[in-house]
Amino acid sequence: MPIPTNYAEGWLRDAIEDAAGCPAYPLAVPEGVLPPFVMYGQAGQEDLQTLDEGFGSSTLVQGTFSVSICADGYLQAKQLARLIRAALRNFTGLVGDLKIHETTITGQQDGDAVFLEGRDVPTYIVEQTYAITWEE
């Protein structure tokens, strides 16, 4: 069975990887992966309205997504965050079968630095939150 191309998560992953030039993983990072990398996941979703465009109806959906940018240096994490924010902020358009109506950043903050297993240098984290509205 082919995987549908109309998922906001697929667009989000591709847009992050294109902007940051590093891998993006849903919810967890495989063991042994070194920074820089990005984790993302959906924190919530709600139906906003049903649209009738003359060809049947579709539902306008808004999802809230968390994005965690991880890097070995604080300024590197900030730069990756800036690149990702510039690529995602205010995006609208058709991506494959996915029609995105609006993408907004609703928050950004520094996360706590962490020490990944087996490493004696901190990994710095910048956390972003996005609201993405699309047709389903």
What can you see in these coordinates?
- By secondary structure, this protein is α+β, with helices and mostly antiparallel strands.
- The chain has a single domain (8-135), classed as STM4215-like (2-Layer Sandwich).
- 21% of the residues lie in helices and 46% in strands.
- A hairpin with a 2-residue loop joins strand 4 (93-95) and strand 5 (98-110).
- Helix 1 crosses helix 2.
- The longest helix has 15 residues, at 74-88.
- The protein is elongated, with a radius of gyration of 16 Å.
- The mean pLDDT is 92.
Summed up, the helix count is: 2
- N-to-C series of helices and strands: HEEEHEEE
Number of strands: 6
Strand line-up of the largest beta sheet: 1-2-3-6-5-4
User: What is the level-2 CATH architecture name?
Assistant: 2-Layer Sandwich
Strand residue percentage: over 45%
Largest beta-sheet characterization: 6 strands, mixed
Q: Could you report the average pLDDT, rounded to the nearest whole number?
A: 92
Low-confidence stretches: none
* Shape label: elongated
CATH superfamily: Phage tail protein-like
> Which percent range fits the helix content?
10-25%
Q: How many discrete domains?
A: 1
Radius of gyration: 16 Å
CATH T-level fold name: STM4215-like
